[in-house]
Specification:
The complex is a heterodimer of chains A (about 110) and B (about 110).
Chain A (H helix, E strand, L loop, with lengths): L8 E5 L4 E6 L7 E8 L6 E6 L4 E2 L4 E4 L5 E6 L8 E9 L12 E6 L1
Parallel strand pairs in A: 1-9
Antiparallel strand pairs in A: 2-7, 3-4, 3-8, 5-6, 6-7, 8-9
Chain B lengths: L3 E4 L2 E4 L5 E7 L5 E7 L5 E9 L2 E4 L6 E3 L9 E3 L8 E8 L9 E2 L3 E5 L1
Parallel strand pairs in B: 2-11
Antiparallel strand pairs in B: 1-3, 3-8, 4-5, 4-9, 5-6, 7-8, 9-10, 9-11
The chains are: A mainly beta (about 110), B mainly beta (about 110).
Chain lengths: ~110, ~110
């Protein structure tokens, strides 16, 4: 399985944008890039996913590099409720049942 | 819409005891999975199922059994609990093979084996 590399932790001020990077240099052409987050004492929660083009939804934006070897999850205005561990995961089509989680990036949001 | 429901939320077992962690989903999802999460770690896949009657092993299957007799339910059985199985267990479900969509997770079962 292709691997992802994320920083262990990041900090942000509330109401400022946050850019969470993910490197996946061995990604294959059929791998989707998924982001999940895990709030304290909760199960993981889907954030966004994409294949080649940038994606937007109500929670975040996903910017994918042209060579697909890296991506960035963008939270446009961080709030205290966004403090969580964010996981970048590569998923071959149809393997949403077999997600491979790394240790993710712990995002701290301060006032 | 309840989503993915796990019971119990907390459980303490003695070494050697057996128990079943329950997982139910009401979204008619074909795929269901069990993960465990140890402190400071990401989730690791135990077993998964791509439909009723079909199960397969994940990364860390030893000491656990599963079955999938209905689309809705995917119980995880610990045959003889060991302290190394102390962990938080998450169940997840998602749509089937040709839809690369999101997985939905339950709130977890915190298991302590003493």
């Amino acid at each position: 399985d292709a691997k992802t590399t994320q920083p262990n932790s990041m900090e942000s001020n509330e109401e400022e944008p946050v850019h969470l990077p993910c490197n996946h240099s061995t990604i294959s052409g059929t791998d989707y890039i998924h982001w999940y987050r895990q709030l304290p004492s909760q199960g993981p929660e889907y954030v966004i996913h994409g294949l080649t083009s940038n994606v937007n939804n109500r929670m975040a934006s996903l910017a994918i590099a042209e060579d697909r070897k890296s991506s960035t999850l963008i939270l446009h205005r961080a709030t205290l409720r966004d403090a969580a561990v964010y996981y970048c995961i590569l998923s071959y089509t149809g393997t949403a049942s077999k997600l491979t989680f790394g240790t993710g990036t712990r995002l701290q949001v301060t006032l | 819409n309840a989503g993915v429901t796990q019971t119990p939320k907390f459980q303490v077992l003695k070494t050697g005891q057996s128990m079943t962690l329950q997982c139910a989903q009401d979204m008619n999802h074909e795929y269901m999975s069990w993960y465990r999460q140890d402190p400071g770690m990401g989730l690791r896949l135990i077993h998964y199922s791509v439909g009723a009657g079909i199960t397969d092993q994940g990364e860390v299957p030893n000491g656990y059994n599963v079955s999938r007799s209905t689309t809705e339910d995917f119980p995880l059985r610990l045959l003889s609990a060991a302290p190394s199985q102390t962990s938080v267990y998450f169940c997840a479900s998602s749509y089937g093979l040709n839809l690369n969509t999101e997985a939905f997770f339950g709130q977890g079962t915190r298991l302590t084996v003493v």
